[in-house]
Write a structure and sequence with these properties.
The chain is α/β, with parallel strands linked by helices. The chain has 3 domains: about 5-210, Methylglyoxal synthase-like domain (Rossmann fold, 3-Layer(aba) Sandwich), CATH 3.40.50; about 235-365, AICAR transformylase, duplication domain (Cytidine Deaminase, domain 2); about 385-510, AICAR transformylase, duplication domain (Cytidine Deaminase, domain 2), CATH 3.40.140. It is about 40% helix and about 20% strand. The strands form 6 sheets. A 6-stranded mixed beta sheet has the order 10-15-14-13-11-12, with helices on both faces.
Amino acid sequence: MQKKIKAALISVFYKDGLDNIIRHLHRLGITIYSTGGTQKFIEDLQVPCVPVESLTGYPSILGGRVKTLHPVVFGGILGRRNLAQDLQEMEQYKIPEIDLVIVDLYPFEETVRQVNEQESSLGADEKEARVIEKIDIGGPSMIRGAAKNHRDVLVVAAKKDYAALETILLEQDGITALEQRRIFAIKAFDVCTAYDTAISNYFNATAIHTPFNQEKKTLRYGENPHQSAAFYGDTQALFTQLHGKELSYNNLVDTDAAIQLIRDFGSGDEAGYTFGIIKHTNVCGIAKRADVKTAWDAALAGDPESAFGGVLVCNGTINEATAAAINEIFFEVLVAPAFDEAALTILRGKKNRILLQLHDFPAGHQQHRSLLNGVLTQDNDEGNYSTWTEAGGRNSSDAEKEDLVFANLVCKHLKSNAIALVKNRQLVGKGCGQTSRVDALRHAIEKAKQFSFDLSGAVLASDAFFPFDDCVKMAHAAGITAFIQPGGSIRDNDSIAYCATHQLVMVMTGMRHFKH
């Protein structure tokens, strides 16, 4: 179905390449409607142009935000030429038929790049204001309207398509086929989709850093004294601060790591209580025992050196005996679901010590990290393992199973490459943040030796597979008799064969726990 262009609406940001099109439209006797800067551009070419405001009866208002949003404009674009009712209403309300819409969109992504490049000279509010003004309203509406009505209207939504339009005007005298109009409509919808996606990405990214529905709290400083910092969020939904100075940037980071850790070990009960010590987001001590006091003693014994200045977390009530023991060392933060009054009296003895009563865990299943002028999101690393496959020289005993489950959870909360050595539900050695798995194991064994732990009968958890059998051999030489790892190496059989030969336990889980 062919249509001849009789009237065109032109309103564009980018005018390069538009002059030849204007001249062809004029040559073919096509009426041109336009606004603002585009109208002036057309008139400067000595081509007559009808201002849109002469159709709507309204000038451009609200600083140019409203120019084309009017029934006369959209009626001319959306009116169906094959429906008598539409044609009757168009005649009644003096709505002209618009057969060609040439509209592009404000340069949103370009504006975002520009304000980011000027970050040092622009405040956050000014940056936001500039970006928001480049969210086009009328443009996408006209493009979508014309694309929807492509049975009667040709739409050109990007300057890269000016050449194709010029060919139609030159070679077809402005007569278009339905298939041509459909192709341009598809391109137009793609333009709108990309534009809306860019806007959505911008607001999602900035919402992570400055969520509009959360109060901003300025912190004393960031990771280091020369870095400014702020927190956006609601910590009161998670815990109540019972004592101490305001939480710093590093306190918040470590407290998050501590809460994520204790979440994986559940609530303390008659089956036992877990006490953990966090240093620079890594677990440096953790143990599970029948009562909170002995859990603390065992966690501290795992690495009393690193515990200095750490963040402590427990899933049981802090009682007087535990508080008296904890009071012997310097720590930054203690997180627990409850505190006895006698315990609070002891722990409040130092004014800066931060005490947090935990009553809920963070909601949501997404993690966010800003990098490379963008934001990464991922699902939380939920759970411990997906399957449990005994692949070694023998099956694990009940005691070994308990330690392997415990060790795998601990390892999940260590920076990669990570190794956790556990014996009797106590972390006795760990290696984390190493550039090779062998180095991580070497560091874990040295830590165990430093504090005189006997590794005979201990278990080992690895956050990722063993690429070779060297780790299994080294660990066995140190006395370790059971291993848990995800598997997945092309040389898994090397480690499995060694365990089979030496009657060692090898559990394969199929779930990796990298933490970068």
